[in-house]
Amino acid sequence: MRTGIILSGGKSSRLGQDKGLVKLEGRPLVSWVIDNLREVVDEIVVVVGSEETIPRYWEVVPEDVHVVSDCYTENSPLIGLITGLKEARGAYAVVCACDMPFIDPVILELLFCISYGLNGTLLVKHNGWKEPLPSVYHVVNCLENAEKLRIRGELRIRKVLENMNDKVSLPIEKLREIDPDLVSFIDLDTMESVEAAKQLIKTQH
User: Fold this and answer.
1) Three-state DSSP class for residue 99
2) Are 136 and 94 in contact (CB under 8 A)?
3) In angstroms, rounded to a whole number, what is the distance separating the alpha carbons of residues 23 and 91?
4) Checking phi first, is residue 11 left (phi over 0); if not, alpha (psi -120 to 50) or beta?
5) Are the CB atoms for 68 and 48 separated by under 8 Å?
6) What whole-number distance in Å separates Cα of residue 163 and Cα of residue 159?
7) Is the peptide bond before 134 cis (omega within 30 degrees of 0)?
8) pLDDT value for 144
9) How far apart are CA 2 and CA 116, in angstroms?
10) Please, how many CA atoms are within 13 Å of residue 89, restricted to the half-sphere of its CB?
11) pLDDT < 70: residue spans in the chain
12) In this predicted structure, what is the pLDDT of residue 12?
């Protein structure tokens, strides 16, 4: 069984609202991510920042999508990861951001396939920067490590896989064979980027 975890943990100061609920072509960003995840996972968990936010997501996500709030109070994507891994029933989970509507399911499938038997797969940009989203995690092992990091006060999500053995560090550039313009990794955290995404959709049709 595979789990898809979508981190939708807080309001964007630049967008003025929860990023996952920002509309793109009339649909919330989180809905775009859900649709792409459905092609490769058996269950989907959306992690939001507070209990008060959950009903707003219930209004827009399908009934079979689990919506949960951060299990700890620290404001960090690591907390969203821990929360999602606690909820996951799959042996492996792919973790995505709620504002990446163009993530290619073929890339997610690849990340799952190369992660089996390992602790997971972390993407690496051409400058060496570790890109934590999307990544695939071995649920049990990575949850244990993430909890240890939190206790130590290390809240950077990329550190979960970065300091584990038996992982794959995959250069993002190698994914251009699947996604030539790497649109999978476009994140919409400003209104300008949302407008640019609308133009991108028009050129694709």
Assistant:
1) coil
2) yes
3) 32
4) beta
5) yes
6) 6
7) yes
8) 98
9) 11
10) 8
11) 10-16, 205
12) 54
Task: Return the DSSP state at 179.
Answer: S
Q: How far is the C-alpha of 145 from the C-alpha of 156, rounded, in Å? A: 12
Encoding tokens for residue 27?
């649909």
77-87 helix and 139-152 helix, angle to the nearest 10 degrees: 140
Q: What is the pLDDT of residues 30-71, one digit of tens each?
A: 999 999 999 999 999 999 999 999 999 999 999 999 999 999
If you count them, how many residues does the chain have?
A: 205
Residue 154: both structure tokens together: 């290390």
- In angstroms, the CA 201 to CA 107 distance is 19
Nearest of 123, 120, 125, 127 to residue 142 by alpha carbon: 120
pLDDT given for residue 197 in this prediction: 81
Tens-place pLDDT, residues 75-90: 899 999 999 999 999 9
- Neighbour-count burial for 3-38, b at 16+ CB within 10 Å, e otherwise: bbbbbbbbebeebeebbbbbebeeebbbbbbbebbb
Residue with the two structure tokens 């993430």: 146
CB under 8 Å to 147, separation ≥6 — which residues? 82
Structure tokens at 184: 């999978």
